[in-house]
Design a protein that fits this description.
alpha/beta; 7 helices
Amino acid sequence: MRLQNKIALVTGAGRGIGRATAELFAAEGATVYAADLSVDEPFESPAVTFVELDVTDLEAWQTVVNGIVDEHGRIDVLFNNAGLVGSYEPVDSIALDDWARVMNVNLNGVFYGARTVVPRMRAAGRGSIINTSSIWGIAGAAGVAAYTASKGAVRLLTKNLALSYAADGIRANSIHPGIIDTPLIAAQDAQITAGVVAQTPLGRLGTAQEIAFGALFLASDESSFMTGAELVIDGGYTTQ
């Protein structure tokens, strides 16, 4: 029960990493709000409540967060996990609408989440914010201009949050998954996936559960002396 009595909000929780994390948080004692545009099937744990949330909508964020705080008085953990690749195009050919969409979800979604939750965490004197970046927020990749730019920005925004709110008892850390077996990866070109797996020293896809365990550590008091850190779970990809 590593998250006993904690109140957690997880975005992008309808499937993949977010869903695995929501279920794991609940199994470890948290009351979890799983936010997404939709959910494929009901959650197994009664401690997980689905809430509809468009992370690009600041007013929707305020509605969801206010509802949680009205019911529980606080939010202890925010896992800003919602994201998408959106486009594999480089800067000279990506459609401007695609660029804006990826930035809006991957970066503005994290910004809106932190902006909404930080005042509540400051009032409580504590909190853990976890932001999903990527191996491509650390290492470069050809094409995927919007995705790499957005995930690199999430990496540095996390450090900014860590420095800005450490005195308020708020910790902020980023997770950098490698290539993970999720619906998002299943939908991309198989050659792209095979290429990244071939460059991964452990030679396989990671699992959503493996990332969820990293998020669990950062959400728990076990990581109480960690802030502004990058938790890389990538099968060794970024060691090269």
